[in-house]
Amino acid sequence: xxxxxxxxxxxxxxxxxxxxxxxxxxxxxxxxxxxxxxxxxxxxxxxxxxxxxxxxxxxxxxxxxxxxxxxxxxxxxxxxxxxxxxxxxxxxxxxxxxxxxxxxxxxxxxxxxxxxxxxxxxxxxxxxxxxxxxxxxxxxxxxxxxxxxxxxxxxxxxxxxxxxxxxxxxxxxxxxxxxxx
Length: 181
Description:
By secondary structure, this protein is of the alpha+beta class. It has 2 domains: about 1-65, no CATH class; about 65-180, K homology (KH) domain (GMP Synthetase, Chain A, domain 3). About 35% of the residues lie in helices and about 25% in strands. The protein has a 3-stranded antiparallel β-sheet, with no helix packed on it. A hairpin with a 6-residue loop joins strand 2 and strand 3. The protein is globular.
């Protein structure tokens, strides 16, 4: 899809939301299932299944990316998509956008060896590489716009309310609900 087509699609969606604000509320879904050992599969919309595994030191066969790597993939690709989208709307030419994301995790938290260490990432860093003939002021505005509107960056940077339940043999045995800080 060309930048022109991206801009047309986005402007149509924006106009639709302006005409009917309720259409801005969407739900994304993913259905996952454990297969064996630490290997799982995920289904999203009508796409082929996505497989998830762990490296050998975490009990896997290293046949696919792991969940915490998927978080980094989500961050990098969301940034790249937002650059493409906003650059098209702002008429800023882009030659390339690449993101290098790194997540720093202490396995003591994952294995419950230290109650002071979180199970997830302690910090995430990313570096975005942009190639564009646009002027620095336009690119600064684009960068600020992307970083303030990237959904995955927002999800990672802002506390989220999370609600879940565990059902055993069809009956709810546990529920979890956190509130946003």
